[in-house]
Amino acid sequence: NVTITINGNQYAVPSDLTVLEAARTVGIDIPTLCFLKDINEVGACRVCVVEVEGARALQASCVLPVREGMVVKTNNQRVRNARKTTVELILANHNRECTTCVRSKNCELQSVSEELGIRDIRYTGAKREGKYDNFSHSIVRDSSKCILCGRCVSACKNVQGIGILDFVNRGFETTVGPAFEVSMKDAPCIYCGQCMVVCPVGALTEKPAIDKVWDALEDPKKHVIVQSAPAVRAALGEEFGYPIGTNVTGKLASALRNLGFDKIFDTNWAADVTIMEEGTELLGRLQNGGKLPMITSCSPGWVRFIEFNYPDLLDHLSSCKSPQNMFGALAKSYYAEKNNIDPKDIFVVSVMPCTSKKSEIERPELAVEGVRDVDVSITTRELARMIKEARMEFDKLEDGTFDPFMGDYSGAGVIFGATGGVMEAAIRTVADVLTGEDLENVDYTAVRGVEGIKEATVNIAGKDIKVAVAHNTKNAAIILDKIRAGEADYHFVEIMACPGGCVNGGGQPIQPASVRNVIDIRAERAKALYSEDAALTVRKSHKNPEIKRLYDEYLGEPNSHKAHDLLHTHYYA
Ligand code: HC1
Ligand code: SF4
User: Fold this and answer.
1) In the predicted model, is pLDDT for residue 125 greater than 80?
2) What's the CA gap between 352 and 375, in Å, rounded?
3) Which of 3, 82, 299, 369 is the most buried (most CB within 10 A)?
4) How buried is residue 340: exposed, middle or buried, by Cβ count under 10 Å (0-12/13-18/19+)?
């Protein structure tokens, strides 16, 4: 410990803290804008300045280590004025269309201005001209709102190991964007959206698609079906004041029903289908000397990453479409046929924790005989906006259920949304198939948790199956380098593009730095899924009666000819 004086009072604090952290441990908050723990610790915005005895200039507290005997003032006139000046200068150069900004009420610049009591802006002058780029299917970049905090740059470069975004131009013209400010559509961006969820303002947002959903719901000719992804229910509640990690499956179903969809189905159901197809593909590769390790293909950001960066390894990817697209393909074939509806009249909406899914649905090779699988994909955040627009009181909704036929799911389908979940779900089924038994233990905890890379050996029917799980693309690259070098002896690998898997996807509710700095939102949201899994009676995909029916009455066997036509795909180098 060291002794430090903050605002005239002495405290003993751990010696490895910064002044910012030390102050917070004793109940004194210092405002920040650019700081994001472990991701962006650069002291760039200077909103967190403090006065330190003996130092002439004010110091950025987020990067200033505590020292024995240090005397700090966090709240005198000089400090307050400096912070106000800094924020006013940012505001003077900011496109302040707050009332119509998608981040209004969830904007850290807005909060900090309010907390500092800024009522007018003393600076006027030229504003940097902004670039507005909405050409991709996933991301909108509006540099007129960028405050140059660098969080997105760090998330893309240091967390994801990609580096699409960086500071470009100089001086007054400095901005953040892809090299040469090309469109995000033309950069090798994987659309993971990890830059968006750390953006404190409205400079990076998802490409909105709500209007297309409202239009479809109004169209009497359309039969509108909604599916929602496993991870949505683990985070949607945050938009309505629930604590992080609350599972809101029942309210989600009721909200979707109130919005007027014709059928409320579940991507979890399609996750069970994926396990049948992918598990069978794995068994086939193991038995017939196919390409190993086989790697999961459900995370579209991850698929883009391998296509851009490791095209020589594409034959390791499972040929399975993602659950999102399997669902769409089956809605427009199996469901259409059983209910005598023309597939052309069916409109499939997906609610996803993901921004890359918006681009995935546009991949032409995923269409079946010219009919696309999914018509519109919206994020968890966009669904929350629809619920608010419809003026539902979310917390007062009764717990509802999804519709039968494509809405019942196993616990295996639920855990897809957390890193390691697809692997665990697959092992549950593969183990039963290989042993010919109904194994009682279904908890493969070695592949759970937020460690970057997890490895395990599972002994099934006397055979050792070696597996690995990686989340975020920086960790994915480590595994791929091993495979490329011939140093990996895994049989099966799960990769998710986002840190923590889909629960922390780029389309999930945005938590400010003040929350992200103290709570591991990945772990909390994952718990919401593992507890739902544990509470279900059916926890293996192949035991789901609706899945048995799908194969008995429609597809025949997993990996059958029909299954291949509808549920499998190929990739591009
Ligand atoms: Fe995911 Fe998946 S788990 S990719 O994270 O395989 O987005 O939730 O829907 O498709 O099921 C996302 C989540 C999601 C697919 C499934
Ligand atoms: Fe980087 Fe992902 Fe953002 Fe693209 S979407 S710029 S890859 S963080």
Assistant:
1) no
2) 13
3) 299
4) exposed
Which is nearest to 144 in space by CA: 223, 186, 90, 185?
90
Give yes or no for a contact between 87 and 95, defined as CB atoms under 8 angstroms apart: no
Alpha-carbon torsion 388, 392, 397, 400, what sign? negative
Joined tokens for residue 380: 């968890």
* CA 353 to ligand 1 centroid distance, Å: 8
| Residues β-bridged to residue 166 | 177
Q: Which residues line ligand 2 (CB under 6 A)?
A: 139, 155-156, 160, 162, 164-165, 189-195
Hey, whose CA ends up nearest to atom 2 of ligand 2? 192
Q: 169-205 pLDDT, tens per residue?
A: 888 889 999 999 999 999 999 999 999 999 999 999 9
The 10 Å Cβ neighbour count of residue 137 is: 21
The CATH number that domain 211-567 falls under is 3.40.950.10
Q: What are the structure tokens assigned to 486, written together? A: 């011939």
Q: Are strands 70-73 and 2-6 parallel, antiparallel or unpaired?
A: parallel
DSSP 295-338: E----HHHHHHHHHH-GGGGGGB--BPPHHHHHHHHIIIIIHHH
pLDDT average, residue stretch 431-453: 94
* Contacts for 387 with CB less than 8 Å, ≥ 6 apart: 239, 240, 255, 259, 394
Written as six digits, the tokens of 432 are 């039963």
Rounded Cα distance between 505 and 498, Å, is: 6
CB of 333 closer than 8 Å to CB of 373:
no
Q: How far apart are CA 76 and CA 319, in angstroms?
A: 62
Residue 186 three-state SS: coil
Task: List the domain boundaries for the chain.
Answer: 2-90, 128-207, 211-567
- CATH code that applies to domain 128-207: 3.30.70.20
Does residue 114 carry a pLDDT above 90?
A: yes
- pLDDT of residue 45 exceeding 90, the answer is yes
Which of 416, 423, 496, 522 gets mutated to test ligand 1 (max ligand atoms within 8 A of its CB)? 416
Query: Are 245 and 527 within 8 A, CB to CB?
Result: yes
Write out the two tokens for 347: 């409109």
pLDDT for 128 equals 81
The average pLDDT across 420-438 equals: 96
Which two structure tokens, joined as six digits, stand for 22? 């030390």
- Tell whether domain 2-90 is in CATH 3.10.20.740: yes
What's the CA gap between 522 and 186, in Å, rounded?
A: 30
Q: Which two tokens stand for residue 261?
A: 């969809």
In ligand 1, which atom is closest to the CA atom of 421?
3
Residue 212 near residue 250 (C-beta atoms within 8 A): no
Query: Does the predicted interface ipTM exceed a cut of 0.90?
Result: yes
